[in-house]
Every structure is written in structure tokens, then in C-alpha cells.
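Workshop exercise sheet. Pairs work together: one partner reads the sequence aloud, the other fills in the structure field after running the prediction. Swap roles for the next sheet.
Pair: D.N. / O.F.
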Amino acid sequence: MNNSVQLEVTFNENRERESQKFFFQYTWRKHFSKLRIVTICAILFLLIGFLPISELNESIISYLFKFLGILCIGYICLVIIQYLVSKKQTSHLIEKRINDLKQIQEKTSFIILNEESVTIKKPTNIVGSHWNKTSYKIIGKYIILNLLQNKITLIFTTSGFTGSDYDTFKDFVQKYSQQQN
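Structure field:
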């Protein structure tokens, strides 16, 4: 028996903008946790490289630590520049996407859930995936749904659903999909 459940999600400009910005910050949070480690290493390497110990200053080890410290600082600068450029591009893309969605007459999306698959029908496209190729992560009020083995990512919040549709969606996702670490 194949019972399908159809849920309705209406377009909201502010919610869409907030969800996209949340996902951007969530994605970059992983990079910044690694950046803390590199920053600590850079400080450590530079401290050891510039220690005023005469035996250490006359050897190649001092230059090696200075070089590693400067290399780490260069990496930190590259990641920060990449973040700033990416933030500007993402902000521009979010606004472009929202403007495109505002132009479309039909502003309602549908989520069709059944035991084998999930299908999301948006005004601009239709995306479907079997549950075995779908994973999710719940962070606060957001459900991050990764379809087709992390090739497509969708973000859902409680405010996008009406009534108990959010709970129904969450139950289906938790029951049939794999939780992501």
C-alpha cells in the first residue's frame, strides 16, 4: 500500500532569505572551526621561531618555524578573503533568486511524501529522490534535507508549513531518511 501525503509550503520572501543566510553561515562554520586550529598553530610557530634563544636563532629550526608561521598566516588570509567574496556572491544570488521567485505567479510549493520517495514541486522545478539517497540534519528550527546523496540541499523551517504539516514532514524525514552527522 502506497499512501502519499501532500504538504503545501507557501513562498515567503523573508523566510527564504533567512533560510539561505542560515545555510551559508552553517556551511562556513565548518571552515572557521579549522581556521581556529590553524591560527593557534601560526601563533605557536611564530612564537617558537622568534624566541630570543641564541642556540635556536642560529639554527635552521628557527627559520623553519618562522616559515611555517607565515605560511599559516597566508592560509588564514586566503580563507578570510574567500569567505568575504563568497558572502558577497551568495548575497547577490539570494536576492536574484528571491526576485525570480517574486516574478512567478504561482508561489506555492508542494512536498509529496510516501514510503519510497520524497518529491518537492516548486514553481521553478521538480526534485525527487528515493529515501535511501536522502539524508537530513535538524539544527534548531531548521531541517536541512540533502537529496540525491548531497547534490541538492533544501532548508525547511516550521514557519513555512501550516498546522501540523511540519510535524508530519519531520516524522517522514526521520522515519525514512538517514540522519547526517
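Discussion prompt: The first strand starts at residue 5 and ends at 10. What would you look at next?
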